[in-house]
Specification:
single chain; 446 residues; alpha+beta; 8-stranded mixed beta sheet; two-stranded antiparallel sheet; elongated; binds adenosine-5'-triphosphate; binds magnesium ion
């Protein structure tokens, strides 16, 4: 069906004239739109407001994908939306949106935005010296709203009453040609909001699209603007980058566009020379994608543990060799430093930092598994994550004396099997318990 429509579309020029495609000219079907989103649009329409499905919802339906969420754009102000729906909440200051609760769904509803030049009121819009939008609450009409969106493929509007797709920026042409193209001047738009660079990479990875040259070229040079973004926003972005099923491709694109250094500077520096560390991260991303496809749980703590592992290990080695610290002491100090440094870039909620540290800590404890220790380790709440981490390290070529296999067998074994595995340890010279040497007393204690 799209084919028929595409024949109508002229090659891209960034226009703002509205092109309207009727139901027989596009493949967006009401059937695939959530009932919550349809209800929100219909109630807004009944109250006399314009309401459209926009963004990923339309884009992914055109590509026959399953949208992650449905966003609505409307001519109603946030206050007007709130009045129409019980259980609607206005959230955000920088960018006000309304969360409308419909049963178990939350439908994000935004009011049409306009250009900043259309307002001189500071409480509606403001911009930093570098051009970054600090506040973006200037309301407008659908045309100005389309121009304020990031990429042409994200600026397609579907009306549920007319079954039409409205296109202001040749977005359908770019969907067909699998292209990520910034609306307007890319450099200005990156200055307004540097996160758009991460979004370009994220959509390219997720959809398998190419980033159009003018949209792509400034990224390398302007990546440093990400340093102006708050660590908490970058944490949210990092979840979208790595926990949405395309982490492997996303990570590669972050490297290719020199963006990793602005999100994870220590990691970016290490992987230049640490091939095994790089492989460990890549394998983590592949495993994460697989788990997501299989509907298995993934935690940001594990991804962080892998991303920061090469930097933590480099620091640990330095402390062991140069400061003569024990591995445990060195690792503790290295973990503290590496996590602390990272917090300046992407926030990591406390509940995750403690898990990262436990996963690392268990890397030193899992080899010490004689006697009752093994059972105790098995009961540790992070055992599974730490064991997976050992397997990962072995998978990328680290020699851990068969530690992963031993633990795999131990978990599967019955009581007798576990005894045999313990005996195996006793027979291995390297695993004999070391006799502690008494510290010589200091002269003052004698
Ligand atoms: P997905 O939900 O699959 O990640 P999406 O395109 O729906 O993709 P959202 O973050 O849900 O992305 O945003 C919804 C829409 O809002 C986008 O499609 C885009 O039109 C607009 N948008 C979001 N973030 C920005 C931004 N930083 N600058 C300009 N427009 C944006
Ligand atoms: Mg969305």
């Amino acid at each position: 069906m799209l084919k028929r429509l595409y024949n109508f579309i002229r090659p891209n020029s960034q226009q703002t004239r509205r092109q309207v495609y009727s139901r027989d000219q596009h493949s967006v079907s009401r059937k695939h739109i959530s009932s919550g989103a349809l209800q929100v649009m219909s109630r807004l329409n009944q109250a006399g407001y314009e309401a459209y499905l926009v963004g990923g919802g339309v884009r992914d339906l055109l590509l026959e994908g399953r949208p992650k969420d449905f966003d609505i754009a409307t001519s109603a102000t946030p206050e007007q939306v709130k009045r129409l729906f019980r259980g609607a909440r206005i959230i955000g200051r920088r960018f006000k949106i309304v969360h409308v609760r419909m049963g178990r769904e939350i439908i994000e509803t935004t009011t049409f935005r306009a250009h900043h030049s259309d307002s001189n009121k500071r409480n509606e819009s403001s911009q930093s010296d570098s051009g970054m939008l600090l506040r973006d609450n200037v309301y407008g009409d659908i045309e100005s709203d389309a121009a304020r969106r990031d990429f042409t493929i994200n600026a397609l509007y579907y009306t549920s009453d007319g079954f039409e797709v409205h296109d202001f920026c040749n977005g359908l042409h770019d969907v067909k040609h699998r292209t990520i193209r910034m609306i307007g001047d890319p450099i200005t738009r990156y200055r307004e909001d540097p996160v758009r660079m991460l979004r370009a990479v994220r959509f390219a990875a997720k959809l398998g699209f190419k980033i159009e040259t003018k949209t792509e070229q400034p990224i390398r040079h302007h990546g440093k603007l990400l340093l102006d973004i708050s660590p908490s926003r970058l944490f949210d972005e990092m979840l979208k980058l790595f926990m949405a099923g395309s982490a492997t491709a996303t990570f590669q694109l972050l490297l290719d566009h020199d963006l990793l250094q602005h999100l994870f500077p220590a990691t970016a520096a290490c992987v230049k020379s640490d091939a095994m560390g790089l492989q460990l991260i890549q394998q983590t991303m592949t495993n994460t994608d697989k788990r997501i496809r299989a509907d298995q749980r993934v935690t940001p703590a594990f991804i962080y543990a892998a991303l920061l592992w090469p930097a933590m290990q480099a620091e640990q080695t330095f402390l062991e060799q140069k400061k003569k610290m024990s591995p445990l002491q060195a690792q503790n100090q290295a973990a503290h430093k590496v996590i602390g440094d990272q917090l300046a870039h992407t926030a990591i909620p406390k509940r995750f930092t403690s898990v990262i540290r436990e996963i690392w800590d268990l890397q030193l404890r899992l080899p010490l598994r004689r006697g009752r220790r093994a059972e105790r380790l098995l009961e540790h709440p992070r055992f599974r994550a730490a064991y997976d981490f050992v397997l990962l390290r072995e998978e990328v070529g680290e020699n851990m004396d068969g530690l992963g296999l031993w633990w795999t067998q131990y978990q599967d074994a019955d009581e007798h099997g576990r005894e045999l595995l313990q005996q195996q340890l006793s027979n291995t010279a390297g695993n004999k318990p070391k006799r502690r040497r008494r510290k010589p007393k200091k002269p003052s204690e004698q």
